[in-house]
Amino acid sequence: MEQLSRTRTALLIVFLVLVWGVNWPLSKFALSYTPPLLFAGIRTLIGGLLLLIVAIPRYKQMRLKESWHIYLVSSAFNIILFYGLQTVGLGYLPAGLFSIIVFLQPVLLGIFSWAWLGESMFGLKILGLFLGFAGVATVGAKGLSGHISVLGVVLALGCAFSWAIGTVFVKKAGHAVDSIWLTTLQLIIGGLFMIGVGSKFESWSKIIWDAAFIWDLLFISVFVIAAGWLVFFKLVNSGDASKVASYTFFIPFISLLASIIFFNEAFTISLLIGLILIVASIALVNSKPKPLKAAIQTSHVTLQHESQGE
To answer: Could you give the angle at which helices 105-116 and 150-173 cross, rounded to 10 degrees?
Structure first.
């Protein structure tokens, strides 16, 4: 297992947060040139084919006969539902708002990990869960008045649920497969599936192959999907998975900032309050009660030394 230096780890995390943050407004921009499902399929397939170049030298670790079901389930939740709902949903909500709701995922992940993986549940995490749902309610409340699509909020929540379930599944079963092959095959399988469905319900002739769209598509395919997932697994394999999870709450900020700067999306008080609540919830859910535990251990050691000194 390769260990990364703090500087390199920090740079990789910054890269990941930036590219995954700008992905939302860039994807929304692309939807003015292409139907959603075809776009979702094309970008994930391109990303998967790029990763295939990295995966092929590791062909012995694919173990398709024993692990095909893991690849399929992971593809369904992490790619088909996640990217499919995301791309369609961006047509109904501002990109910044959509990304904020989707990044309720760490809150849901806390619940699912506790229920299915037996991970700990403590006071700060419970508080974070309540704040998260309060934040979603605050952000989504405007949609009930008709200004923001309720369908868009539902699709964003579905996106968050699918990503959370997919993440728990990979944590539980992912040790049985190579991480690079898992990412590569789920992108290729998901991309082909969405292209197939998109071809049935959408028209290829509606794609406007303008230079702006092509550059947008290439950037997302190369940096957001292929390079982004490679960096993610590099951090995970170096033992920094929890750090990656704790920093993902910055992604909605990046998405909102990019949406406001480049697409003139409104920044309302309710959106600000919802953002603060959701970010606070994600920070609390990803926190660990280490300071208290460390203080107790330090006190215990101090008492032992004092007793030995006596």
So the answer is: 40
pTM here is 0.79
Distance CA 94, CA 90 (A): 7
User: CA angle at residue 245 from 240 to 249, to 5 degrees?
Assistant: 140
Quick one: which of 221, 238, 222, 119 has its CA closest to 167? Answer: 119
**How wide is the angle at C-alpha 158 spanned by C-alphas 86 and 264, nearest 5°?**
40
Q: What are the pLDDT digits (tens) for 108-131?
A: 877 887 888 777 777 777 787 778
Q: Is 60 exposed, middle or buried (0-12, 13-18, 19+ CB in 10 A)?
A: exposed
- Indicate the Cα dihedral angle 86, 88, 89, 94, nearest 10°: 100
pLDDT in tens, 150-202: 898 899 999 999 988 988 888 788 778 888 898 899 999 999 999 999 999 99
**3-state helix/strand/coil string of the chain:** CCCCCHHHHHHHHHHHHHHHHHHHHHHHHHCCCCCHHHHHHHHHHHHHHHHHHHHHHHHHHCCHHHHHHHHHHHHHHHHHHHHHHHHHHCCCCCHHHHHHHHCCHHHHHHHHHHHHCCCCCCHHHHHHHHHHHHHHHHHHHHHHHCCCCHHHHHHHHHHHHHHHHHHHHHHHHHHHCCHHHHHHHHHHHHHHHHHHHHHHHCCHHHCCCCHHHHHHHHHHHHHHHHHHHHHHHHHHHCCCHHHHHHHHHHHHHHHHHHHHHHHCCCCCHHHHHHHHHHHHHHHHHCCCCHHHHHHHHHHHHHHHHHHHHC
CA neighbor of 153 nearest in space, from 108, 109, 97 = 97
